[in-house]
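hiii, so i know i said id send this last week but things got crazy w the move. better late than never?? heres the sequnce for the chain we talked about at the cafe, plus the structure i predicted for it. fair warning i was half asleep when i ran it
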Amino acid sequence: MAKKITLPLTEELARSLKAGDEVLLTGTIYTSRDAGHKRMCEALARGEELPFDPKDATIYYVGPTPAKPGQVIGSAGPTTSGRMDAYAPTMMSVGARGMIGKGARLSEVVDAMKKHSGVYFGAIGGAGALLAKCIKSAELIAYEDLGAEALRKLYVEDMPLVVIIDSEGRNLYEEGRAAYLAEHK
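okay and structure toks below
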């Protein structure tokens, strides 16, 4: 049975989630991909503030398609998270705690997750139209010139996700693979 969780992703909430937990996420999330992350990290390096408050924020690695008439947003499936690995530790160091995407993460990201009580949620790749139905509002907040990679603020209701890596560094990809191999010796 999926856990219903409501954002923001506080440290206490993040620590309560374990690798393998199925969740239905409700609340405000932000979207960004590699070009947006690069721009945010460059701004931080210059001592500038981000265009949103990163404290306890969750960032969805997505480049949504344009909305059709009557839609809040177009298809909104996850992008490969590894493209943000160079930026994720910096984003967590300024307060961002949750990440939504697909695929494995580097050990540096997992180390930052343990240090900052971060959580990596997996979204189902190829299900962008279905995931878009969970998005109830979308607002462009920065980097409009980046098109699909612009920074957006979304409000989601019951977005189906799985905790892939928890704040202790437990990794469902690794544990699942090990369990499968042990079972099929």
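btw The two ends are 30 Å apart (CA to CA). thought thatd interest u
miss u guys!!
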